[in-house]
Amino acid sequence: MEYTVKSGNPEKQRIGCVVIPVFASRKLSSSAKIIDKVSNGYISNLLRRGEIEGDIGNALLLHNVENTLCDRILLIGCGKEKDVDVNAFKKINCNMVKRLQSSGATEIASYLTEVSVKRKDISWKIHHSIEAIDECLYKFDQLKSKKEEARRPLRKFIFSVNGRGQLMQGEQAVRQGMAVSAGIHLAKDLGNLPGNICTPDYLAKQAVKLATQHKKLKTSVLEESDMEKLGMGSLLSVSKGSREPAKLITMEYMAGDKKQAPIVFVGKGVTFDSGGISLKPGAAMDEMKYDMCGAASVIGVLSACADLQLPMNIVGIIPAVENMPDGIASRPGDVVTSMSGQTIEILNTDAEGRLILCDALSYAEKYDPHVVIDIATLTGACIVALGAHPAGLLSNHNPLANDLLSAGQTSGDRCWQLPLWDDYQEQLKSNFADMANIGGKGAGTITAACFLSRFTKKYHWAHLDIAGVAWKSGEHKGATGRPVGLLAQYVLDRCEDCQ
Ligand code: BES
Ligand code: MN
Ligand code: ZN
Predict the structure, then answer these.
(1) Which atom from ligand 1 is nearest to the alpha carbon of 439?
(2) pLDDT tens-place string over residues 196-216
(3) What is the reported pTM?
(4) Domain spanning 194-498 has what CATH number?
(5) What is the number of other CB atoms lying within 10 angstroms of the CB of residue 444?
(6) 483: cis peptide before it, omega within 30°?
(7) CATH topology classification for 2-179
(8) Residue 354 annotated in active site
(9) If we measure between CA atoms, which residue out of 85, 165, 492, 149 comes closest to residue 307?
(10) How far apart are CA 288 and CA 284, in angstroms?
């Protein structure tokens, strides 16, 4: 999709369709008032007759409106003028797209940018219109033998801004929105690919491919023999039962000052989680192809940062493995030694995410990081605690947690903090090793984070448990691309030259 910004009156747009907001109950927006005036009260007449109420979900397509230059005008209901929040704004945009798809118009001028959204400015509205439009248009048909093509697909959106003064700001917002949206798209595609295609090797190849597209991005891949030398006995124990060799993928985007410590993202990349010898039940096991969505979000956010050529240092580390049962797979009761030297009793082979993350987190020390943020579909317990709305957030450094909470509010891709108190650590006691890999009954998300916290003592660290948010189940099964939006916002908030 092509996106641009423009300032100017709605009746003067010579284009396929102009999108105009109307509010509940039957209230005109300023652009609607302008159209109303030039068309001698046509819009207010329609409202008075009850053709459209202005509620969210309402839409009314008009043709050949008097004294306008556009082919069509689409009135979009935006609900109560003062109640438009982040979620409502997304719904309004998606409703617009759905209506436009069957309108025949291909080029659109949108005046939804004049709707005021609580505590958000014009840049935010443009950036998030782009994310919402792309989200609404996303489909994953790579693996269908016949693809449905829209007869007249939407090609171009022009966002209206208030005067020339907002043009530069608007163009910057378009660049950011498109880059983040492309990162989300990439993360969705990687997530949706099945385990027989999206293997650890496939993930590594995608990361290498991304580096060929950006001068400042370098990808390197460690093989199992390299990891053995580094002493990553915990990570390697997970992939032992799989025919797919483990990969440790590192993406370095170093476009900042040499002295600037990097932001390091670590993404769980279990390309299929069968549970191993502690085999999962069959129901919905296919969804464990999504157990690499943390990795996908790391690739997505690095793609966005590189696209935007941010003058920053950002590193992505992805431990990529497949978790399978086999004659040489880890057994419950096995003890392994992690790269940190700490020993782990594997009481449940299905708690594999923490086993690969702990070695990747030790590996991250070599970057002397500013902060380390890991992203993982780590615990079913997180879905019990928080459902599908926020990611779980746990951190050993409150300022970092607050920065992520705030990036979540800005982006709408939210997280919610859980306590990482020492009181929970004792649940990880083992009779035979330094720790067990499961914490028993209660607080499964917290004890998983407690496990990781034993490997992150040397830096500021936050953990995002995305088990509830990375994909949707049921009729609309599919990856969401979360939390690329959150992570990109966190990075943008730290970028001094991007404000
Ligand atoms: N990948 C799963 C977590 C998961 C399960 C995410 C379902 C989303 C939906 C993880 O590897 C896992 O199996 N965790 C176990 C941990 C338990 C054995 C302590 C879980 O949550 O059941
Ligand atoms: Mn598991
Ligand atoms: Zn898993």
Answers:
(1) 19
(2) 999 999 999 999 999 999 999
(3) 0.98
(4) 3.40.630.10
(5) 22
(6) yes
(7) Leucine Aminopeptidase, subunit E; domain 1 (3.40.220)
(8) yes
(9) 492
(10) 8
